[in-house]
């Protein structure tokens, strides 16, 4: 399972302030800690104001790409910021997060994904926002899959995000997500799945408990990647345990290694 480390995100106050003062030491420390904790991709989000993001995202990419060994996930809805960031990116493997089923997003993002041979995250939403039902989300997923095929992007480079809606606004949405995940894996073989896990608990008390429990459920339903905080040791312990329990950890070797290195919480 791929872990996309979420902490370098300008919606977080410490990151926003670090970007404003160009605090290189702080940002490098955040990146290196997440890599050491087991992240496979480092999410980079500089989205505060549009004009600032156009400057800050390429700056962040240049700063971080040589500081860690893992590739970056460029997290932006700003087309110009994405294009500029990709121009300065030189690590090779890269993930673009994200595009939707809206025609303008497809036309803006997928040519860049094709050009840079990027992994790309497709969100199950369109002009009408996030659908409430499994069936309506799958219709949008079909459009996302067809669009990537039209641009010659292999299915194994597409990650679909069925979209997590907070249960605090609609208690049915955890189940809707899981059922969408399961149906998606059956109807679109070869396509991988991802989600911003912590959205599930927004507005609720003891968010970490909900996040950990939801992660275990998602793994059981076939989730391939998650955008999470790898410094949350209890969440990472649940990940190792869930992968072992669902037969996704050969001979449970990763679970055993995590135990021996002190990464599992009792």
Automatic annotation (TrEMBL):
Highest taxon of source: Bacteria
UniProt GO BP: homocysteine metabolic process; methylation; tetrahydrofolate metabolic process
GO molecular function, one term: methionine synthase activity
InterPro entries assigned: Dihydropteroate_synth-like_sf (IPR011005), Met_Synthase/Corrinoid (IPR050554), Pterin-binding_dom (IPR000489)
Domain Pterin-binding, residue spans: 1-246
Keywords for the protein's UniProt record, in alphabetical order: Cobalamin, Cobalt, Metal-binding, Methyltransferase, Transferase
One Pfam assignment: Pterin_bind
Gene3D superfamilies attached to this UniProt entry: Dihydropteroate synthase-like (3.20.20.20)
One term under GO cellular component: cytosol
NCBIfam families in the cross-refs: PRK07535.1 (NF005719)
Family membership: Belongs to the vitamin-B12 dependent methionine synthase family.
Protein name (Swiss-Prot/TrEMBL): Methyltetrahydrofolate cobalamin methyltransferase
Organism per entry: Candidatus Caldatribacterium saccharofermentans
Upper taxonomic lineage: Bacteria, Pseudomonadati, Atribacterota, Atribacteria, Atribacterales
């Amino acid at each position: 399972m791929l872990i996309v480390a979420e902490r370098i995100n300008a919606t977080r106050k410490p990151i926003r302030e670090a970007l404003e003062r160009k605090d290189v030491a702080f940002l490098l420390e955040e990146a290196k800690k997440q890599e050491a904790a087991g992240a496979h991709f480092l999410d980079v989000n500089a989205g505060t104001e549009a004009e600032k993001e156009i400057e800050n995202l390429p700056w962040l990419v240049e700063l971080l790409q040589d500081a860690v060994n893992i590739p970056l996930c460029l997290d932006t809805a700003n087309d110009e910021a994405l294009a500029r960031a990709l121009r300065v990116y030189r690590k090779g493997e890269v993930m673009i997060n994200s595009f939707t089923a809206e025609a303008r997003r497809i036309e803006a993002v997928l040519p860049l994904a094709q050009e840079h041979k990027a992994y790309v995250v497709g969100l199950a939403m369109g002009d009408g926002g996030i659908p409430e039902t499994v069936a309506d989300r799958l219709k949008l997923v079909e459009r996302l899959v067809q669009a990537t095929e039209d641009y010659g992007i292999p299915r194994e480079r597409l990650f679909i995000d069925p979209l997590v809606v907070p249960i605090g606004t609609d208690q049915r949405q955890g189940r809707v997500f899981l059922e969408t995940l399961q149906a998606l894996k059956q109807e679109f073989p070869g396509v991988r799945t991802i989600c911003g896990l912590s959205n599930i608990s927004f507005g609720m008390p003891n968010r970490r408990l909900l996040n950990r429990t939801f992660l275990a459920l998602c793994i059981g339903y076939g989730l391939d990647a998650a955008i999470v905080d790898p410094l949350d040791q209890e969440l990472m312990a649940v990940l190792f345990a869930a992968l072992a329990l669902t037969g996704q950890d050969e001979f449970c070797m990763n679970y055993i290694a995590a135990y021996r290195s002190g990464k599992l919480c009792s």
